Amino acid sequence: MVQSYDVLLKRLRSQLGASGAKTSGNRLELPDPAVIWIGNKTIFRNFLEFPRLLRRDSSKLLMFLAKELATAASLDGDRAIFIGRKDPNSFAVLINRYMKQAVLCPVCNSPDTHEERVKRLQFLVCEACGAKSPIKS
Ligand SMILES: [Zn+2]
């Protein structure tokens, strides 16, 4: 489990380093997740910065992380608290996955997007190029 996250992160870092062109359209600068363990809990200390920067509902991002980590999570001020000792490296990987799934425009890669709900379908509406893309739930 921990090993596979390491591999993912290394791959991610090498991709980011090798082909800057892929992310050049993405001018969103995210901080590094500050993650510590206290007892049997994992504290994500600067969690709230991420939904703020991504302009997404904090509870949605929290639910996504909790689901991916297969644990329970709660908000405590700016912090998110997860039950169990989770690999601190996995948070950057998961936030990146969330961005690809629900934030970055698949057409132009811009992070300037918002979600729009039409009946039971969710769309990602891009403010840069105007593309409207369905979001996988
Ligand atoms: Zn776009």
Q: Can you tell me about this structure?
A:
The strands form 2 sheets. The chain has a 4-stranded antiparallel sheet with strand order 1-2-4-3, with helices on one face. By secondary structure, the chain is an alpha+beta fold. Residues 18-24 have low confidence and may be disordered. The chain has helices at 2-18, 20-23, 49-54, 58-68, 89-102; strands at 35-38, 41-44, 73-76, 79-83, 113-118, 121-126, 132-134. The chain has 5 helices and 7 strands, in the order H-H-E-E-H-H-E-E-H-E-E-E. The two termini are 24 Å apart. It is globular, with a radius of gyration of 15 Å. Helix 1 crosses helix 5 and helix 4 (58-68) crosses helix 5. It folds into 2 domains: 1-17 and 29-103, Defensin A-like; 104-137. It binds zinc ion. The site of zinc ion has 8 residues, from loops.
Mean pLDDT figure: 88
Q: How large is the share of residues in beta strands?
A: 15-25%
What about the largest sheet? Answer: 4 strands, antiparallel
| Structure class | alpha+beta
CATH architecture of the largest domain: 2-Layer Sandwich
Helix content: 25-40%
- Rounded radius of gyration (Å): 15 Å
Record field, number of beta strands: 7
> Shape, please?
globular
SSE pattern, N- to C-terminal: HHEEHHEEHEEE
CATH class type of the largest domain = Alpha Beta
| Stretches with pLDDT under 50, minimum 5 residues | 18-24
Number of domains: 2
| Biggest sheet: strand arrangement | 1-2-4-3
Number of helices: 5
Which compounds are bound in this model? zinc ion
N- and C-termini, Cα separation:
24 Å
CATH topology of the largest domain: Defensin A-like
